[in-house]
Amino acid sequence: MKLPQNSSEFNEYSYFVTPSDMIEFTYCRRYTYFMKVLNILQHEEKRYNVRKGREIHKIRESQNIQYIRKKIPMVSKEINVNLISEKYKIRGIIDEILTMNDNTLSPLDYKFTNYNSKTYKTHKIQSTMYSLMIEDLYNKPVNYGYIIYCKDKNVLKEIKISEKLRTETLESINSYMEVLKGKYPEATKYERRCLDCCYKNICPR
């Protein structure tokens, strides 16, 4: 695997977008503007799902480390892998990187939420960002990503990492960078998302 932290290309002062950044941006672009441009904190550490999700990740790091899932055609895995891609300006910690039986790789992520009969766009983009980093740093193809929904009896879902999804993800990262430079974005068109938003009192819809 290529290690950009040790390469002459790595610039510690560059900005690297994380999958968590993109989940919030995809949910509502104005959310990113308030938090990253105006530096108004969201205090996510007070939210139950965030705290519970972090507890689950710690447990997964210490239990069943060598466990091979029978429902996935895999032969081995790495857990809690910290990656930085200079090429895509992405960084993040991947819960598991699976080596598949066809010698491709796949990211696997745990979500402390229900499945709700569909895989949300935010989860697809997160999995695609992990895939881009893996392909860049391991120099191996990624065809699928996997998500386990812990609140729904550990339902396992597969995401096809298509060229369309790669293109959409890279376009979203470019749009994210434009907002960081000061571009004021439109609010989400889904007003129901505003009900539980920590910025609803200052956001002029």
UniProtKB/TrEMBL annotation:
Main enzyme class: hydrolase
EC number, as in UniProt: 3.1.12.1
Example GO BP: defense response to virus
Keywords: Antiviral defense, Exonuclease, Hydrolase, Iron, Iron-sulfur, Manganese, Metal-binding, Nuclease
One of the Pfam families matching this protein, by short name: Cas_Cas4
Cofactor note text: Mg(2+) or Mn(2+) required for ssDNA cleavage activity.
Cofactor(s) recorded in Swiss-Prot or TrEMBL: iron-sulfur cluster; [4Fe-4S] cluster; Mg(2+); Mn(2+)
Domain DUF83 residues, every copy: 22-203
Presence of the UniProt keyword Manganese in the record: yes
InterPro entries: Cas4_exonuclease, CRISPR-assoc_prot_Cas4, Dna2/Cas4_DUF83, PDDEXK-like_dom_sf
GO MF annotation list: exonuclease activity; iron-sulfur cluster binding; metal ion binding
PANTHER family the record matches: CRISPR-ASSOCIATED EXONUCLEASE CAS4, DNA REPLICATION ATP-DEPENDENT HELICASE_NUCLEASE DNA2
NCBIfam families: cas4
Family: Belongs to the CRISPR-associated exonuclease Cas4 family.
Physiological role: CRISPR (clustered regularly interspaced short palindromic repeat) is an adaptive immune system that provides protection against mobile genetic elements (viruses, transposable elements and conjugative plasmids). CRISPR clusters contain sequences complementary to antecedent mobile elements and target invading nucleic acids. CRISPR clusters are transcribed and processed into CRISPR RNA (crRNA).
The name this protein goes by in its record: CRISPR-associated exonuclease Cas4
Organism: Methanococcus voltae (strain ATCC BAA-1334 / A3)
